[in-house]
Write a structure and sequence with these properties.
Elements: H1 11-14, H2 22-52, H3 57-60, H4 62-103, H5 105-111, H6 114-141, H7 148-174, H8 189-211, H9 234-261, H10 271-274, H11 277-295, H12 301-321, H13 324-338, H14 341-350, H15 357-366, H16 370-385, H17 392-408
Length: about 425
């Protein structure tokens, strides 16, 4: 697909000046918080709906499959949409669609029908996909190119803040204090209320962003075409694979944390207690992102990425080979290693794309489908060989990420 050239407003993307973008960046951090919050609620829904509908691991992980497959279906159209309407309008559109997805939880809960939950999750994720396609490159271009990784890491820290808060919210409002819910034990409002509140918050945010005075970036001139496209950049394609395996690893680990920690030979905890440990996992990611935003002002982002990925692989090896508290805390520490990975891979992959930045962002968000594919493969392993051995899949993912940070992220113009 050929990309379009930039309008005068969008030229600022490739050559940002010294404009003070503090207000714009502050506004955008709220988006990172809300979609992190919503995404992490899936890790609560997996064990909850598994018990409620008496599902296998593979069936329960259809929650993540439907949610993250939306990235694959929607990302490319979202990239085209954002390039036509600009980043700000793209954000408003994404918020409204995500709000509609939250509203669909009401009839899904009323019907007590699992497939309707999956449809609601797909629509919700479609809106978040548009948000990601618009907001991630928006943050990257609001400032100096050389500090893009640090800037995106800082805003992603607020994404981790959302994922840290969400487990407590989910355990309190969705679990309602129950350990292993069974059919008939929950009222319709158990899931309806939290998602109605989220729908209201998303719609209010859409109205606010519609009237904020933000830099008009991202819109392309559809009347003029140029040759070439984002797929010609080798570091982008390899970065897309990096996003694929990273999201797959992060989602897979998060989805199995409760099931893993509740095992008698690991943590021997009840599910409602184990669910709080998801906050430890994502809390580590939040702390690491604040630290990483500072560290990457002085160290090359690729080297920091490679170091973190190697540490994550070692921790997963410990998780697989040991048991008890050592295995439990090793898997939780992987969250700290995850901290800078997504924003760093993203910013390294779109570096130097210039007029192809929106398309590149769409390609990278397309790769988030890894969160649908790899956890499902991990679930199949868990059903046949056990939850602990299934962590071999995220371990292999981190090996690739280490290579990308050290070697594959170096920009080349052709694949």
């Amino acid at each position: 697909m050929a990309a379009s050239p930039l309008t005068n407003d969008a030229v600022a993307e490739s050559t940002p000046g010294q404009t003070n973008y503090r207000f714009a960046l502050t506004s955008l951090t709220s988006l990172f918080f809300i979609w992190g919050f919503i995404t992490c609620l899936n890790d609560i829904l997996v064990p909850y709906l598994k018990g409620l509908f008496d599902l296998t691991y593979t069936q329960a992980l259809l929650i993540q499959f439907c949610f993250f497959s939306a990235y694959f279906v929607v990302s490319v159209p979202a990239g085209i949409l954002v390039s036509r309407i600009g980043y700000q309008s793209g954000i408003v559109t994404g918020l409204l669609i995500a709000g509609a997805g939250c509203l669909l939880f009401y009839p899904a809960a009323a019907a007590h029908y699992y497939p309707l939950f999956l449809i609601a999750l797909f629509v919700l994720a479609a809106g978040i996909t548009i948000l990601q396609v618009a907001a991630n490159p928006y943050v990257s271009v609001l400032g100096k190119p050389e500090t893009a990784s640090s800037r995106l890491t800082m805003t992603q820290a607020f994404n981790s803040l959302g994922t840290t808060v969400a487990p407590f919210f989910g355990a309190w409002l969705i679990f309602g204090g129950m350990d292993a819910p069974k059919p008939g034990e929950v009222t319709e409002s158990t899931v309806q209320l939290p998602y109605l509140l989220l729908a209201a918050a998303l719609i209010v945010m859409a109205l606010i962003f519609a009237f904020l005075r933000l830099p008009k970036l991202g819109k392309k001139d559809a009347e003029i075409t140029i040759t070439g496209n984002a797929w010609q950049y080798r570091h982008l394609v390899l970065g897309a694979l990096g996003i694929f395996v990273y999201v797959g690893a992060e989602v897979g680990i998060g989805s199995f944390l409760v099931s893993f920690i509740t095992q008698p030979d690991i943590g021997a905890l009840e599910a409602k207690t184990a669910s709080h440990y998801i906050a430890w996992y994502f809390g580590g990611a939040m702390m690491g992102r604040f630290i990483g935003a500072v560290v990457m002002q002085y160290l090359a982002p690729g080297k920091v990425l490679a170091f973190n990925a190697v540490c994550a692989a070692v921790l997963l090896a410990v998780t697989i080979a040991t048991g008890g508290s050592l295995a439990m805390f090793a898997i939780l520490l992987v969250g700290l290693c995850n901290s800078i990975m997504f924003p760093t891979i993203f910013s390294l992959a779109i570096a130097g794309l210039k007029q192809h930045t929106s398309q590149g962002s769409g390609i990278l968000c397309l790769a988030i489908v890894g969160g649908a594919v790899l956890p499902l493969a991990q679930a199949a392993l868990a059903d046949n060989f056990g939850v602990q051995l299934a962590f071999i899949i995220p371990l292999l993912c981190y090996v690739y990420i280490a290579w990308y940070g050290a070697v594959g992220s170096k920009p080349r113009t052709t694949v």
